[in-house]
Design brief:
alpha/beta; six-stranded parallel β-sheet; Rossmann fold; 3 domains; two-stranded antiparallel ribbon
């Protein structure tokens, strides 16, 4: 049995790839810089890309993208037709203006939007008075902002539901139910478009960037099975698979066009209404599978070997809590090494581990040294790049 390397988006970022959600927003916001210079045809090149000192995408990156050819024109035209006016992209851009550190997690934001939809249609509308504008109620401005943004194009939606007076008919239960259904469909349709735009960005643009660095610590791992929460192929490109190593891209992969982008769904009492947004449902629908479970199944014979789990670049976010918990608590996993790049990141990992494992199990793991932390060394040049 091989050891396991679990990787998240920090793995791609460490290797110099602009795969942050904020990188994608920079890309779409500067799309016209690329498209005005875009040339259909030509060879598909692998190239270096100018990034800022933190490895983030910058407007100058678009000029470099445009210098190269070989793009799939159908995909380029899809981006050109769908970037502008997408409800999610517009919402994320507006949210970025309110966030001090200019960092955003799409999945957290999707979860918050769905919660606002649920509260509005299930708790607020059924109890509102036709003659009292809801906007005057304190504490719910965030919900009203979400509703105004995402429901403005929903068939039958009346903006007076938020900031005016309405008739009794629109507040009838069947009408509220229909408006809710139409709203969920509307934001789901735009989420599918967002996911495809993100996929095209990664496969047509990020995949062309030459990865010029590598981690000596990862290179030293012997034949690990890789559980990747990324959509990209960075591990395969840089390190290949040593004998016995297996790969599972938990949230789908670019070439298969089966990306998983959603929420854990635990905040919703009726999973069926929000099924299309829930990760476990997307995993089933997109056939990304769960064969990683075979790597971490409980001991069932004397021949089962112990496994060392390495975690590199995954924030241990709550959206992926259930899957992370499976890895961390498997009887087969006897040692866990968490790679971290600075003291702040180590502190964040400790907080997330406490949240996932609970206080007693976390203390047991830490006191018994089952979990250890290893500082990431600086990336070194990749000779074959």
């Amino acid at each position: 049995m091989q050891d396991i390397l679990l990787i998240g988006n920090g793995f791609d970022i460490y290797h110099g790839l602009p795969t942050r959600y904020t990188d994608f927003l920079v890309f779409v916001n500067n799309w016209n810089m690329f498209y005005s210079q875009y040339r259909d045809g030509g060879d598909s090149d692998i190239f270096q890309l100018p990034l800022d000192k933190d490895g983030k995408l910058i407007p100058d990156s678009m000029d470099e993208f445009a210098r190269h050819g070989g793009y799939n024109d159908d995909l380029i035209q899809y981006l050109n037709s769908n970037i502008s006016g997408n409800l999610w992209i517009d919402y994320f851009n507006k949210r970025m203006k309110d966030i001090s550190d200019k960092w955003i997690d799409f999945e957290d934001e999707i979860n918050n939007v769905l919660l606002a939809i649920e509260v509005f249609y299930s708790d607020i509308l059924p109890h509102r008075q036709p003659s009292v504008p809801l906007i005057k109620q304190r504490g719910n401005q965030g919900i009203y902002y979400v509703i105004k943004h995402f429901c403005k194009n929903v068939r039958g939606f009346d903006i007076n539901l938020i900031n005016g007076v309405v008739g009794n008919k629109i507040l009838e239960p069947d009408n509220i139910k229909d408006l809710k259904k139409q709203s969920i469909k509307c934001i789901n349709d735009d989420l599918k478009v967002l996911t495809e735009c993100l996929r095209i960005y990664l496969i047509e643009f990020v995949s062309r960037i030459s990865v010029s660095v590598m981690s000596e610590q990862v290179k030293a791992l012997n034949g690990c099975c890789v559980a990747s929460f990324n959509y990209t192929y960075t591990y395969q490109t840089v390190y290949g698979f040593k004998e016995g190593g297996l790969n599972h891209q938990v949230h789908g992969e670019l070439k298969e066009n089966n990306l998983v982008l959603g929420v854990d769904g635990k905040a919703f009492t009726d999973d069926n209404e929000y099924a299309d947004f829930i990760k476990y449902f997307q995993i089933i629908m997109n056939n990304t599978g769960s064969f990683y479970k075979e790597w971490i199944r409980d001991f069932n014979s004397l021949n089962d070997e112990e496994v060392h789990l390495y975690v590199f670049g995954h924030s241990l976010g709550i959206i992926d809590k259930d899957i992370i918990y499976e890895f961390l608590t498997s009887n087969r996993v006897k040692k866990i090494t968490m790679f971290y790049h600075n003291d702040g990141a180590r502190k964040d990992l400790l907080h997330k581990l406490l949240e996932i494992l609970g206080q007693d199990l976390f203390k047991n793991y830490y006191d018994s040294r089952k979990i250890e932390f290893e500082l990431l060394q600086k990336a070194v040049p990749r000779l074959s790049a």
